[in-house]
Structure formats: structure tokens, C-alpha cells
Design goal:
Elements (H helix, E strand, L loop, with lengths): L1 E9 L9 E4 L4 E3 L3 E9 L4 H13 L6 H18 L7 E2 L1 E6 L4 E7 L3 E6 L2 E4 L6 H7 L5 H5 L20 E6 L5 E5 L1 H4 L4 H8 L6 H14 L6 E9 L1
Antiparallel strand pairs: 1-3, 1-12, 2-4, 4-5, 4-6, 6-7, 7-10, 8-9, 8-11, 11-12
The structure holds magnesium ion.
The site of magnesium ion has 6 residues, from helix 5.
Length: 237
């Protein structure tokens, strides 16, 4: 199994700095184990950038399963905040995927960045947001459409770096040839709903780099109110 990937991170059209981080930072392809991740930081005094960059630096330096990497990242962000009191309260989402050429996909996840699978033309969200509105939707108290304009739509119920302990969700999947995986920050999904998202991802013959560019363009065309980060991975023989 081979993986071809592209990553993009874009400041958007409203914010003056980019608090998202992405890994890898260059496009490529491999027949070996591939690690990819998206982190969306939050916090004043540059805390957002520091939190997301610290989390990814740590998660991609340590070895092991996604959950172990996210727990290490969590401690690193907590430590960084202790050393720089101005950054107290900084945190980040972290969605991390390991793709094994033998076909195993393992995902670790905290926050509201997302992982999706496009298989045979059908888009499936693999992760569940750790957010106030996601809890309301799960409880049947809010529809996904209502959540899109809810005043608390960006309030997280879990984040990396706020506390020395954090609960990490994990997801597993057996990959198939032709699968396309998307990891993204909420700057994409708050601007581009599942219909157009699926349409862009499913354009035949569109390589990861072209699709990643198209997703960033779509989010910016819709307003670009937040930083936009995407990772696309295609699974080939
Ligand atoms: Mg965001």
C-alpha cells in the first residue's frame, strides 16, 4: 500500500495570524508508515500558535500509538504554559492519524478538528467533535443545521494542554485501495458543509495537492472566518 498526501494551512480572510499547525509541512508519497496531524490552537499572547506547534512537535517526535503521542503532547503544552505564565490557558485540538502500509489506520483525537473517510464516493466523518454543540446534537437537543449558527459552536469540551490529564478518543479502520482520508481544522468545516465537501473530495483524477487547494479556496470563498488547515491522503496500490 502506498500513500500520497498534501497538506495546506491558510490564515483565512479575517484573522491576522494562523494558530493552526499541520504535519507534515510538505507534500509527498511513501510506502512506509505515515504520520499526519492537525492542531488548532487557542489562547491569547500568541498562546494558540505556541500550543498547536508544541503539541505537533512533541506528538511527531515521540513514537507509539496516537493516544500515547497525544498524551505526551498534552504534557508538553502544560509544561510550556507553566514556563511562560503569559501563555496560561493556552490549548489546542489535536487529531493525529498513523497509516500503516499493511492497511491499518489509527486515529487519536481531542477537540473539534476532524478526520473523514471518502470511500466509494461516500463521505464519512470518523471523529466526533468534543464541543458543546456536538453534545447537544448527540442528546437530540440541536440539529446539525442549528449548530452551524449556534453562538457557542466553537466552545470545546476537551482540549490538549489545559490539564495534565486529558481523555483521548481513538478510532481504527482497515484501509482499502482508493480510500481518501481528510484531516481538517474547523476553519474548513465551519465554512464548507458536507455536501460541497464531499463533491470537492470526490472529483475524479484530482490529486491530493489540487484537492487541498480547492478545499482552502472553498473555505475562503465562503468567508474564511477562521484559519483553514487540511491534510489529504490517497491510498494506492
Ligand atoms: Mg479553528
Amino acid at each position: 500500500m502506498n500513500f500520497a498526501w498534501a497538506t495546506r494551512t491558510d490564515v483565512g480572510r479575517v484573522r491576522d495570524h494562523n494558530e493552526d499547525s499541520v504535519w507534515p509541512t510538505t507534500d509527498g508519497s511513501t510506502a512506509e508508515m505515515l504520520a499526519v496531524a492537525v492542531a488548532d490552537g487557542m489562547g491569547g499572547h500568541a498562546g494558540g500558535e505556541v500550543a498547536s506547534a508544541t503539541a505537533l512537535d512533541t506528538a511527531m517526535t515521540v513514537s507509539g500509538e496516537p493516544t500515547m503521542r497525544i498524551l505526551a503532547a498534552n504534557l508538553a503544552v502544560v509544561d510550556a504554559a507553566r514556563q511562560r505564565p503569559r501563555l496560561t490557558g493556552m490549548g489546542t485540538t489535536l487529531t493525529l492519524a498513523l497509516l500503516d502500509p499493511d492497511g491499518d489506520l489509527d486515529i487519536g483525537h481531542v477537540g473539534d478538528s476532524r478526520a473523514y473517510l471518502l470511500r466509494d464516493g461516500t463521505l464519512q466523518q470518523l471523529t466526533r467533535d468534543h464541543s458543546y454543540v456536538a453534545d447537544l446534537i448527540a442528546a437530540g437537543k440541536l440539529t446539525p443545521e442549528e449548530a452551524e449558527s449556534h453562538p457557542y459552536r466553537s466552545v470545546l469540551t476537551r482540549a490538549v494542554g489545559l490539564d495534565p490529564t486529558v481523555e483521548v478518543d481513538s478510532y481504527g479502520l482497515i484501509l482499502q485501495f482508493g480510500d481518501r482520508i481528510l484531516l481538517c481544522s474547523d476553519g474548513l468545516t465551519s465554512m464548507v458543509s458536507d455536501g460541497p465537501l464531499s463533491e470537492i473530495l470526490d472529483r475524479q483524477g484530482s490529486p491530493p495537492a489540487m484537492t487541498a487547494d480547492a478545499l482552502v479556496t472553498a473555505a475562503n470563498d465562503a468567508g474564511g472566518i477562521d484559519n483553514i488547515t487540511v491534510v489529504i491522503i490517497d491510498v494506492a496500490e
